[in-house]
Amino acid sequence: MTADVSGGARRIAVIGGGAAGMMAAIRAAELGADVTLIERNDRCGKKLRITGKGRCNVTNACDSREFLNHVPTNPRFLYSALNCFSTDDTQAFFEDAGVALKVERGRRVFPVSDRAEDIVSALVKKLRLLGVRVVCGRVSELCTEDGRITGCKVSDKFIKADAHHNIAYALR
Predict the structure, then answer these.
(1) I want to staple 155 with a disulfide (CB 3.0 to 4.6 A). Which of 23, 67, 137, 169 is the partner?
(2) At 52, is the pLDDT very low, low, confident or very high (cuts 50, 70, 90)?
(3) What is the pTM (predicted TM-score) of this model?
(4) Whose CA is closest to 81, among 139, 23, 128, 34?
(5) Four-residue CA torsion sign, 107, 84, 49, 126
(6) For position 167, what pLDDT does the model report?
(7) Residue 2 pLDDT greater than 60, yes or no
(8) What pLDDT was estimated at residue 113?
């Protein structure tokens, strides 16, 4: 993700506080954006906490080409994403955040603790360190002006934004 923040911090609303939404919010904040993360559940990462039977298979310890060979449908869809943020980058991100990782059978990568909660905690801690605001509630409306999105309503509260990420999530 790139965010043009020249001329002042850009306000970005990320809709969806799962793994992808938290990573998008973190990256936007690292690039200098003023970020609000909107999650419809009572806390971010709720589903992430139960992935892998509560252990959280973080990624796989293989290069992008091998990883894509195991994607059953339309692997080219992931090509550009993996070129920007590889499985090695994913491992480095969590290790830098203090989560020790291990590689198991099939080159699956898990936290050494076998606790998905450690992955969620690392993401939430990073959001806090970067000053990302988290708002819990369901997006009820996207607000527009002159044909462009200017924000959204969450529980009758207006969240102003110059850009949005994960818009499709809000419309489910």
Answers:
(1) 137
(2) confident
(3) 0.85
(4) 23
(5) positive
(6) 39
(7) no
(8) 97
In 76-138, where does DSSP find H-type helix? 79-84, 87-96, 116-129
CA dihedral sign, ordered 52, 39, 43, 28: positive
pLDDT at position 162 is: 81
3-state secondary structure 33-87: CEEEEEECCCCCCCCHHHHHHHCCCCEECCCHHHHHHCCCCCHHHHHHHHHHCCH
Contact 110, 57 (CB under 8 A): yes
Q: What average pLDDT is seen over the chain?
A: 87
Number of other residues whose CB lies within 10 A of the CB of residue 87: 19
> Could you tell me the CA-to-CA distances from 59 to 40, 82, 126, 153, 160 in Å, in that order?
25, 12, 19, 34, 34
As given in the structure block, the two tokens for residue 58 are: 């973080």
